[in-house]
Amino acid sequence: MPTYYFDIETTGVKPEQDKIITVQYQEVDRNTAKPIGDLVIHKEWESSERDMLQDFLGSTRITDPYPFAFVPMGYNLVFEHNFLRERLAAYGLPRVDILDKPFIDLQTIGVLMNKGEFLGSGLDKITKKPFSGKGIPFWYKEKEHWRIEDYIKAEAEAFLEWAQWLYKEMPELRKKWDG
To answer: Which 3 state secondary structure label does DSSP give 165?
Structure first.
């Protein structure tokens, strides 16, 4: 069961009008969340959104009918799901429904760690991620792609550090609960 840290970056929050500018993933150990492979970043600015999405589909097993061929792990995967569904359909590419197969969305844990509040539970608020991604559309417009790549790497590192901590601590919480 290959598990992958999974994320996208976009030019906005509306999949019907904004586009996906990066798709990134990294295989992680399913029992520890420690990276196994390199962080792969597909970049729209190196080709086009359509070509980038096609490259992503071709380089992973996300469209494989076996439900455990690509298990995404991320934060608020509904966002990725909605964008992928809309943008892939816009180009007539194969449908991907990441919420219809096994997935690990750590946003719920982030909200619980924030006393049930969504406000203030962003990944930049509960991990060592240095800041939110609000600057990405501006950086993209200004062609400051290196800033986007630096942001992606920092976000992946912060997410995986937190995920590794959760993988270690959550079994202990279960033991306490089972008491």
So the answer is: helix
Distance (Å) of CA 114 to CA 63, 74, 110, 151, 177: 34, 17, 6, 24, 20
Residue 10 is given by DSSP the state E
Cα dihedral 53, 59, 9, 31 sign:
positive
Phi, psi of 151 (to 5 degrees): -60, -45
- Residue 168, SS3 per DSSP: helix
For the chain, what's the residue count? 179
Residues of the chain with pLDDT under 70: none
- Number of structural domains found in the chain: 1
- Hey, which residues does 35 pair with through a beta bridge? 28
Note the pLDDT of residue 128. 87
Which residue intervals of 28-144 are DSSP H helices? 49-59, 77-90, 107-113, 123-126, 136-141
Rounded Cα gap, residues 4 and 1, in angstroms: 10
State which residues form the domain around 158.
3-178
DSSP state of 116: T
| pLDDT tens digits for range 11-49 | 999 999 999 999 999 999 999 999 999 999 999 999 999
